[in-house]
Hints:
Elements: E1 9-15, H1 22-30, E2 37-44, H2 50-60, E3 64-69, H3 74-84, E4 89-92, E5 98-99, H4 103-111, E6 120-128, E7 134-137, H5 148-153, E8 165-166, H6 167-172, H7 179-182, H8 189-198, E9 203-214, H9 224-241, H10 246-266, H11 270-283, H12 285-311, H13 342-345
Parallel strand pairs: 1-2, 1-4, 2-3, 6-9
Antiparallel strand pairs: 4-8, 5-9, 6-7
Helix pairs in contact: 9-10, 10-11
Amino acid sequence: MSGAAAPLITVVIPAYNAERTLAETLRSVSAQSYDKLEILVVDDGSRDGTFELASDYGLSDRRIRVLRQNNGGVARARNHGIREARGPYIAPVDADDVWHPEKIERQLQALRTLPGGHGVVYNWYAAIDENGIIFGHSRPVLHEGNIFEPLLRENFIGNGSTPLMPRAEILRCGGYDAGLRDNGAEGCEDLKLYLALAEILPFALVPDFLTGYRFTRGNMSSNAYRMLKSHSLVMAPIIARYPQLARDIRAAQFNTARWYFNKALLGADYAQVGKLTPMMAKKYIPQLIRHGMQQGWRQTKRQGIRMARHVLGKPARPTKRFAAEIPQAGTAFSDRFTTVPAEQAISPTSSRTVGHE
């Protein structure tokens, strides 16, 4: 690729006390098959060795610049990186998440399918634990084009480490909303930005699981109560602007709360369960009853169809398949691809050490 066909992509990595995971994140970024990257690590006032680790890594990959700010939260750190970016497209990744080596290259290919080659690109993700082992994955939806209303109903992008977004439109939308953190509701800054972009831009999809999204106890996405407060604050002005969508948005709020409750229950996080149970009982009793009845009916219907097909001697319906390989629980995210050896990815003689303007 060359010229306009090969834009400089700015990777923005907000990092707060991230020395345990940052090296793995940087390796996954350095090893991208598309190497015309500017990599900005924004140290958000860390008190551990995050700054030193990023600076040392930058000695081997000159595409890396390390920025510092007083601790202000992930939104301010991302916004700092976006303001400093030289590339027309921004690819954020949190300092504990990882990428498939072809993520950026395939996203750029998808970008060219949009009118004028301009818009936002996302992909599916695999959920990984502290050790990089897969335990789940996003629902493989196929939304493209105008995705505003589907995204209101379900945050299918699901994290801050997936999209490729045009810098100019991010700035036009005001970037990530740091005010959510100031109101004790940090967590849905990424969703708020995606919704703002979806009102003005088309979205394209790379139908594959190219992001390894890490869930650990104590990270932002694990604080369910705060995330739900954040979700409510993000949705309130949208309901005011689009009252005809209020029912869908409230259904999405219920589904979000139910998702966090199930996640806490399955993860034996009883502190979260204890916080969420009274809130669910107070706000969502009718929805819980309706959901339980719907689930029971669907299960009964599925069993009836299976029994009828068996009696009639018809084969079971084939499971819906996608071209992408579905992530298998219990396997490492890194097993989904042939990894570039770390020493090769950051070798001083590699083209990856060359700065791009």
